[in-house]
Write a structure and sequence with these properties.
Number of helices: 2
CATH superfamily: Jelly Rolls
Radius of gyration: 16 Å
InterPro entries: RmlC-like_jellyroll, RmlC_Cupin_sf
Organism: Tamaricihabitans halophyticus
CATH topology: Jelly Rolls
CATH architecture: Sandwich
Helix content: 10-25%
Distance between the termini: 19 Å
Shape: globular
CATH class: Mainly Beta
Protein name: Putative metal-dependent enzyme (Double-stranded beta helix superfamily)
Structural class: alpha+beta
Amino acid sequence: MLSASVAEVHDFALTVRALVDHYPNERDVTASIADTLAELLADKAFTLPASHITAHPDHYVMYPLYVAPDGAFSIASAVWNVGQRTPVHGHETWGVVGIYSGVEREVRYAKPADGVVPERLGEHDWSPGEVTVCCTTDDDVHAVSCAGDLPCVGIHVYGANIGELRRRSYDADTGDVAWFVSPWATPATS
């Protein structure tokens, strides 16, 4: 028997699959996924297992909640400990983020040409239950950090297997581009 949270993630993944298959336009699919994710986060009975909300002492982590067998999308639990942040980076795909716990600070940048210093556009703090379309293929450069005094946990849905996707990071001072893969973290077992 599946626990309530595992069953809910499974049902959410089935819904995301249907939306990905139905909407060819990434703006439509992300808007629909954002609505569905907001409903999941509003369910007070929904909980993620402790193994998928545990912060790493040295860096942020992404735990796989679901990866579509065909790589069309993935669902992750992303965890930042207090003081942790990402570099300025892109995703090379669309993405939707909903905050499960803590506060996530997102600093958005204009997508630069290679070698151009990223232009800062603004920042926003996202709180539990809030959902945002964090990226589309043409608008996806930001940096993320834990903004509170408790770890931040977000549920991230991407239009690819984000744990294997090559992505760009940007040096905020020079504009230099580096390619990286943000690999999946292995959840702790008890």
